[in-house]
Predict the 3D structure of the following.
Amino acid sequence: MTLAATVSLSADDARRIALRAQGFLGAPDRRGGVRGVLRHLGAVQLDTISVLARSHELIPYARLGAVGRTAVEEAYWSDRHAFEYWSHAACILPIEEWPHFAFRRRIKRAHGYRWHKMKDKEASCRLVLDRLRAEGPLTSTELGGAKNGGPWWDWSETKIAVEWLLDAGDVVVTERRGWKRVYDLPERAVPDALLHDDLDDRECLRRLVALAGQSLGVGTRADIADYHRLKGEQVDSVIADSGLVPVGVEGWAKPAWADPAALATVPRGRHRTTLLSPFDSLVWDRPRTERIFGFAHRLEAYVPKPKRIHGYFAMPLLAGGRLQGRVDPAREGSTLVARQLSLTTPKAARPMAEALREAAQWVGCDTVRVERAGSPEEAAAVTAELAAL
């Protein structure tokens, strides 16, 4: 049963609450650095695409500014303060969330396999675990090779085994080296108090729903479910005990819930002007993004090139608390190239130029060139603003 909303929010209220919850409104907590961003968001999505940088590097950059890229990697993958697992997708998660995913590990274990099946499951898994126990953390290459020599999905028996053990929680990843997962035993990588914090399924779900609500600030059932890829009925089963409160949001057709802390004070402060990864948790849920910002966005990396509208890795421009355009960037030597850009308003030319210049400096480029734009006027306006900076 859904409780009646006791608080009404305007569409702008909801937008500002969401921006603050995601770290884009108000002064960022630089003391916490990258690790603070991770704890605040609860999940940072990983992806193989690297344009300006990989997505997990773009997430703290968008909130904190030009954090050193080496420092970003060290913050994620040192001191075993984080682990990698299936949340919204493959994500970096604070190590404190290890117990919360016990329900998913049990589901994986009960299913018995991923999409690959092993020729000899017992022997292959035993071999992996024995190697890790004897030799310490290892990559799949060090374990015996990730592929059989065919396409990327043609995994070796060892790779299938170690990934299955990762799903089931019998191995853990707390580090990547050169983008390769480094597998370890949970008893070595997870603090003892967390490793043995055995939560039942309901408590796992309750905590994840509460955390999703805090990370979103305000969201519908679908928003909350999508954050850690839960099912709607799983959210329904625990929402009343999550601590989130029902709210009504102007223009939202569905009921919503908010983090009480997000309602306690009016969101104020400086807005970030930045480019966003398409996998940023502010925009990774496309229906929510369109509902909050009136901005339809789609990742076109997997769309055939002739059918792309905005480009391979179009990054939304966040400025003044709104999404005001997008740009498909690339690097050519020391030049950042805006292969294609578009603006939602002519006033966005200045913030687009500022965001491009900052991104260029971050990745070591000293010039910016606009290659194509939605119109000649947009290209000329952004080029002029770049020259004026």
